[in-house]
Amino acid sequence: MKDNALTEQQLDEAISTYKENLALEPYQAELVKLQQHIERHRLKLVILFEGRDAAGKGSVIGSVSRYMNPKHYRIVALGRPTEEERTQWYFQRYIKHFPHGGELVLFDRSWYNRAMVEQVFGFCSEVEHDLFMRDVVPFEESLVDNGTLLVKLYFSVTKEKQAQRFEQRRTDPLRQWKLSEIDLQAQSMWDQFTETKFRMLKQTSHNKAPWHIIRSNDKHKARLETMKLILNQVDYDGRCRALEFAPDPKTVFSAEEELAVMEKQQLKRGKGNA
Fold first, then answer.
1. Which DSSP symbol is given to 113?
2. Is 25 a domain residue?
């Protein structure tokens, strides 16, 4: 066998990936139609991608945006705030990235950093966190009332799957750049993140911008269900009626359903999905 020949396992994985990509393409074509509808009607769409580290947010964003026109969408992934930004109103650094009419913006993490990561790791004070939790719903309601469609997605991964993905990052030279100091602490702080997630969902899911929870242990299902969910937010021109757009109830949950599951897990003292 030649050195560059694929093993049987590699060949099976390649075929599986090819089939999964084929299954996504009809929905990616619909996303192009959605983007064209947004451009044509001068709509504004903001999508938040939230979840624990290694929940698969980046790969889903890549699949969602793969065939879109780059002139009319942006991916926003902000780093640490600058010293100047630290002196500003917390939401200010995000507002400047909001879409104009005819544009779609995907936030790879968002202002909910303050509700999750900053809270758990102590990067903000309790006063700053409480102020955020008080202001975020009115802020989002105002955003929606002024004509922006806001879609909030939370990707839920099990502790075991997160550990597996961290190990892949550690051992794969192509993924090692993804492994951060915070990642290394995420497993030991699992319970703190779970408690914080519960409070966030309970206090910040509202009628004008509810949370949608997507189970992301299976990356292919997470990608597919995310596309369907986004496509269901707008009655766009040219929708293919032959496609299946109904969400998979084993993969997609409302905030209320997720909170009920988490409450049962708390009663059983289980770790479960989060």
1. G
2. yes
- Which residues partner with 213 through β-bridges? 154, 253
Q: Which of 48, 50, 124 shows the shortest CA–CA distance to 80? A: 124
Asked whether 226 and 60 are in contact (CB, 8 A), the reply is yes
Single pTM value for the model:
0.92
For residue 210, CA distances in Å to 19, 59, 199, 206, 262 come to 32, 23, 14, 5, 17
What does the pLDDT look like over 122-167, one tens digit per residue?
A: 999 999 999 999 999 999 999 999 999 999 999 999 999 999 998 8
CB atoms < 10 A from the CB of 268, how many? 9
- DSSP3 helix / strand / coil % (the chain, rounded to 5): 50, 15, 35
**What is the Cα–Cα distance from 97 to 228, expressed in whole angstroms?**
25
Specify burial of residue 82 (Cβ count, 10 A radius: 0-12, 13-18, 19+): exposed
Q: Which CATH number is 194's domain given?
A: 3.40.50.300
DSSP 214-250: EE-SSHHHHHHHHHHHHHTTS--TT--TTS-----TT
Residue 126 inside a domain? The answer is yes
Give the pLDDT mean for 63-70: 97
The secondary structure of 156-202 as a DSSP string is E-BHHHHHHHHHHHHH-TTTGGG--HHHHHHTTTHHHHHHHHHHHHH
d(CA 184, CA 181): 5
pLDDT digits (tens, 9 = 90+) for 205-238: 999 999 999 999 999 999 999 999 999 999 999 9
Which distant-in-sequence residues (6+ apart) come within 8 Å of 262 by Cβ?
194, 197, 198, 272, 274
Looking at the structure of the chain, the number of domains it has is 1
